[in-house]
Design goal:
- By secondary structure, the chain is an alpha+beta fold.
- The protein is built from 2 helices and 11 strands, in the order ααβββββββββββ.
- Strands 2-3-6-7-5-4 form a 6-stranded antiparallel barrel.
């Protein structure tokens, strides 16, 4: 009588497969103490942290804006989102780019109504105009962008600078507060 009948061979193979599966599960299992060590190594006060972000906000089936960032952290105590290296692109209803911005760092309120940008802040529009400043605050409720820092506005035939800015996004109206200097070349302005 032979022990290597097909039925016995299948039983041995099933047993070996079960042992391999058990070994894989045992190797992948992490005891709770290792998980606790990993959680404790995370920065204090951060309840969510994401890296290499590429998010497109869709409204009514169309892209409204796109955010690309190195890292986003939600701070548990304040509820603020901190964004490293934000680059945003804004789109009109036809899907065409209507502007972009980038900064070294951004802070967004928990209700997404207030945004603070810090570092090398650059705003550009499709006409070729670019605004440069050190920091800029935006309030969605009033649709106003403001800063008390030095501002430069550059474009074809335009070089304007000053200190302090209020920009009404709805009216497309920009006001500089102090130390305003500018050069206009009327033949080059679009």
């Amino acid at each position: 009588m032979s022990y290597f009948r097909p039925r016995n061979l299948l039983l041995v193979m099933a047993l070996v497969l079960a042992l391999v599966l058990l070994a894989v599960i045992a190797l992948r299992y992490r005891p709770e103490s290792q998980l606790q060590k990993m959680v404790q190594s995370l920065p204090k006060g951060i309840d969510v942290a994401l890296q290499d972000i590429d998010y497109t906000h869709i409204k009514d089936g169309r892209a409204s804006w796109r955010l690309v960032a190195q890292q986003v952290e939600r701070q548990a105590q304040s509820g603020f989102l901190r964004v490293d290296g934000p680059q945003m692109t804004f789109y009109d209803d036809g899907g065409e780019t209507k502007g972009s911005l980038q900064a070294d760092e951004g802070v967004i309120s928990d209700d997404y109504q207030k945004v603070g940008l810090h570092g090398e802040v650059v705003l550009k529009n499709p006409s070729g105009y670019a605004l440069y400043t050190d920091h800029l605050d935006y309030d969605q409720a009033t649709q106003m962008a403001t800063t008390d820092a030095h501002v430069r506005l550059l474009g074809d035939g335009l070089n304007l600078e000053g200190t302090g800015l209020v920009f009404d996004v709805q009216k497309n109206l920009l006001r500089l507060h102090a130390n305003v200097k500018g050069v206009f070349d009327s033949e080059k302005i679009k």
